[in-house]
Amino acid sequence: MTDLLTDDQITHALRDLPGWQPRPGSLVRDVTAPDFLAGIALVGDVAQAAEQMNHHPDIDIRWTTVTFSLTTHARGGVTDNDVELARRISEIVDQRFGD
């Protein structure tokens, strides 16, 4: 099982992941889609990536704002799996919105 990352490790990892913020026990990013359906399509793409990784985000959809929250529930905090999923979500956002 993957070890929990320290605060310093999280800070270092987030240097290459603009838009992601550390929160107690998680990584969080808000993405603004151009419209509601674009946000839903984004969620679908992220769901596919999450299934491939067998690591799933918490997702909140509020009109055009999609919030992704990543934590490794089994470990009670942030692990390399969360950082890797954050990286993949960022790639998907860039592909969809050029963000």
UniProtKB/TrEMBL annotation:
By its UniProt entry, which SUPFAM superfamilies does this protein fall under?
A: PCD-like
Q: Which domain of life is it from?
A: Bacteria
Pfam families listed in its UniProt record:
Pterin_4a
Gene3D superfamilies registered for this protein in UniProt: Transcriptional coactivator/pterin dehydratase
Keyword vocabulary terms for this entry? Lyase
* EC number in record: 4.2.1.96
GO MF, any single term: 4-alpha-hydroxytetrahydrobiopterin dehydratase activity
Mind telling me which InterPro entries this protein's record contains?
Answer: PCD_sf, Pterin_deHydtase
Q: Does the keyword Lyase apply?
A: yes
**Which BP terms from GO are recorded?**
tetrahydrobiopterin biosynthetic process
Q: What class of enzyme is it?
A: lyase
- Name the reaction it catalyses: (4aS,6R)-4a-hydroxy-L-erythro-5,6,7,8-tetrahydrobiopterin = (6R)-L-erythro-6,7-dihydrobiopterin + H2O
Which family is it part of? Belongs to the pterin-4-alpha-carbinolamine dehydratase family.
Name-wise, this protein is Putative pterin-4-alpha-carbinolamine dehydratase
Q: What organism is this sequence from? A: Actinopolymorpha pittospori
Q: What is the lineage of its organism?
A: Bacteria, Bacillati, Actinomycetota, Actinomycetes, Propionibacteriales
